[in-house]
Amino acid sequence: MRIRDHRKDDEPEINLIPLIDVILVLIIFFVITATFDARSVLKLQLPKATGEAVTDTTRALSVLVNADGRYFVDDREVLRDDVESLKATLAEVAGADRDRKVLLRADARTPHQAVVTAYDALGQLGFRQVMIATAPEVRAQGKTQ
């Protein structure tokens, strides 16, 4: 005599809920990391100056110095704040083109030594056309000079 088990036969199934959770987390991670932009992260408060704006910066190499004295060459961050590290990054980004214009953008709260270090590194590498970025001076209305 055959004894039958009346329980339902177990059918194999794949549970997709953990897989969907993992894929959702990966999508959120990639969307957030894809929106990072170096220029939007750095908020610079440029020093004020009067004068005419220079618009011919098409080939200019951009050197940024933030308020903490950290350096950024174009979109690359210099990992240390010494002259040799800055020179190595500048040489790597600019290549052999020493006639290229350099736009130095330093925050108004930047320590003076950080700006001097940037000028020193640029001078040692042979860059001679260095421009410093400033913000236009805001004049109060009704104020006479």
Care to describe what's here?
With about 140 residues, this protein is an alpha/beta fold. The chain has a domain of about 100 residues: Nucleotidyltransferase, domain 5 (2-Layer Sandwich). Helices cover about 35% and strands about 15% of the residues. It is built from four helices and seven strands. The chain has a five-stranded mixed β-sheet, covered by helices on one side. A two-stranded parallel sheet has the order 1-7.
CATH topology of the domain at 41-136: Nucleotidyltransferase, domain 5
Number of strands: 7
* Spatial shape: elongated
What is the level-2 CATH architecture name of the domain at 41-136? 2-Layer Sandwich
Number of helices: 4
Give the biggest sheet: 5 strands, mixed
State the low-pLDDT regions, or none.
none
Helix content: 25-40%
Measured between the Cα atoms of the first and last residue, the distance is 114 Å
Which structural class best describes the helix and strand composition? alpha/beta
What is the succession of H and E elements? HHEEEEHEHEE
- Strand order, sheet with most strands: 4-3-2-5-6
CATH class of the domain at 41-136: Alpha Beta
Using only C-alpha atoms, the radius of gyration works out to 28 Å
β-sheet strand percentage? 15-25%
> What is the average of the pLDDT values?
80
